[in-house]
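the two lines:
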Amino acid sequence: MPEINVQNLVKQFGDQRALDDVSFAVKEGELFTLLGPSGCGKSTTLMSIAGFQQPEAGRIAVGDETFFDASRRVAVPAEQRNLGIVFQSYAVWPHMTVFDNLAFPLKVRKLKRAAIRTRVLEVLELVEMTAYEKRYPHQLSGGQQQRVALARALVYSPSVLLLDEPFSNLDAKLRERARAWVKELQHRLGLTTIFVTHDQDEALSMSDRVAVMSAGEVQQIGTPEDVYRRPANRFVAEFVGRVNLIEGAAATTAGGAVVEVADSALRLTLGAGQEASGQVTIAIRPEAVTLIPFDDRSADETNIWDADVGTVAFLGDHYEYEVSAGRIPLTVQSSRLVPGDRIKVHIPPSACAVVD
Amino acid sequence: MTTSSYEQTFPRPRRSLIPAWALQWATWLLVVTLIVGPFIPLIYASLRDRPLYEAGGVFTTQPYRDLFGDRAFWDAWVNTLVFAALTTVIAVVGGALVAILCTRTDLAGRKSFGRLILLPILLPSLGMVLGWIVVWGPGGYLTSMFSDRLHLPTLAIDTIPGMALVEASRLLPIAFLTCQAALSRADSSLEDAARSAGARPLRVLFNITIPMLRPALLNAGTLIFTLSIAALGIPLLLGTSNNIIFVSSYLYNTWTNASTPDPGSVSAGAVMMLAVATLLLLLRNRLLGAEARFVSVGGKSGRQALLRLRRWRWPLAGLLAFYLVFTTLVPVLGLAAMSFVVVLTPLVAPWELLTSAHWHVLWEDDAFRRSIQNSAVIAVVGAVATTAFVALATLVAHRSGFRFRRTLPFLMLYPRATPGIIIGIGFFWAYLLTGAFGDVMRDSIWGIMLAFCVRNLPLAYIVMYPTLARIGEELDRAGRAAGAGWWRTSRTIVLPLLKPAIFASFILLFVEIINDYDPAVFLVKPGTEVMGATMLSQFIQGTVGPVSALAMVQVVITVVVLAIGAKVFKVGVTGGEHGA
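prediction for all of em together
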């Protein structure tokens, strides 16, 4: 399976920039995710790779094959790109049986009847749908239709696999199972895959690497841990997971960078290796903050603030606290209940990420 | 299952022999040629000092000056506009009322009324006019009965308001369909909200429901106005005796009675009518845009609280039934009776005058027999060809990357706004100018068929487009991704899914083409007669009985084909099909 190269894509819809200099490279066998809110350009990027939309500028190549190159006026038609796509609606052809759906790409490739039969059954077995060969799509559940769509995209051994929000039409329970199953299959077959989603849980749990997109631009590319723990900017921090944002003026001291938090007398020491100066925004994940009872004096660490408890909500596996340290509101996830209206919060320096 | 058996290489799909762009260009060029083509010779002919087939013509604006200098032409415009305005008001108000009664109230039998009310637009229009004349015309059966024997005043259908009533009864279903579609699309929670806010049902009707219909009313009104300007049968058959001339009958009379053949002033008049129709179409396109903005909220088609009519439930149903009997059943019965009696008169009981002579004429007289045969052939071949071609053009318009695809919807809807006689004159000149091809078309039924097909092609598009829009685009993208080219994807995936609309389009086109007549009046020759044109010319000559029989043939064919369509293919005329 070859690698995918996307370089400097630009696409304009009217006076709106849908893609603004989008570039990334997907390695062989990797599951690469385009993550972002609706209208961020992730689907436009995917459809440009598939050949259903034409950017105004840029280059798209898979392996040593150039699919699109605006400067050389190359645009291979979609049907010649040999890609497998699973669409959001699955797009399983309703007037054909499961078998015929899978056989179609092979018929187009002029395979013999017997060869088609063997191959279709082989791939149906791969997605555990052999028993449904003669069914029509309306006789299948959403999850089964999705398997058929995936099988149809794989039956001709495409060079890469493109997944366009394939789980968004499944209910929550089924979605988790489908994710694990698709990830396992992708890994086992070593499929180079681009996956488009707006669901950060999905992106974090499935991807080898994630590209976070917004307003037609790639904001950050990195492993799920990278984008979650070290968001490149405020947008990434807020979009991937929940976050507390604290603004202030940073200065570098002997002990590392320190932020004088705006509108308060609080100071925040940043972790080793973090450099900051001038006006900054610091992102802190709610689960990284620890709560300490107010009268607990044992803790003597940096970044311990006194705080008033606003509301506490029980969410099953954790409690969610809304507290305020001075005038600074903080959301904190805690696995245990801490008594009292006044408490202390501890923000580990390593949990502070400079995002602006 | 191991990974190794998954990894196989397959041959790449080959490109198809005929590239998609070639097919798309061919389709587009044919649409442009068929729809714009006939109008170019028409405009050209209106600016020449002699007919196009005579050598040595020079440019002149004389035809326009002749036309504008003729007072009768301006009188004809005044008559036409008054007639069209009256027709529009009657049809729109009536159609909206029936739509509200059938969708928002508990009127008795509202479902059946909703279907029966559509009949007038599907029945043969010329035949229905003849039916009206037989029953309500001067000397008509019921006219004589009421005025001569009972000394009651009757409806004078040979006046402009009378003619407007006849035309409005045919076009009312358009307003009904448009309003019905708008009402079922509109979110009923808007009305529920007003109810919760304390408004009584009738107040909701006047303050919420009817204002919501405004865009639909404007849209239907413009279409009905455009269509009634083009009416030919009504002014020819009802207006002539009272010397009420419309633009269409002015042009028809000038053409047929001209001292010099094929006068340029007729082409000039046709160009003027075409300009008016085009302006109205453009206006309507802008209104449609406005309507789309009105219905931004997609309504749920859930349970709706119906306005309870209480003691009006049955009287209103009776009134509606009376309307249907009066405008649809009575004319058809009149035709049927007329076709079986020597004279239809209240003075003698009809069974004493029974005869089958009129029906014998249908196969004994060459012109009648040929027109039935020709119409049948034209309707079958034309409906098949038009449906196939429009299906292809609709795919190019909405499911291809073809450069000029966005011009196609406007082009394909254009003939809808064009008066039939103008299409007829346009094709007349076009055939004269196209040498051997034109000669073949002029001397055979295919020339008339082509004009009928172009005239009715918008209906096929109106039927197919909504179905196509409901077929998700990801389905054909999946086909392309699987390696099939545009044509193969269209053929194996999109067209099979479009089948119900294709059948519906065939049925509707068959009915419309077999009943069409006005584009043919300038094209018929001995040997190429079609039913409608024969009915018109024979009726003007006074042959009433056999013409009634021929009209009954049309009515029966129409009803039978529609019934088969409804049964076998589940073809239903739903909102938007005729309305859009």
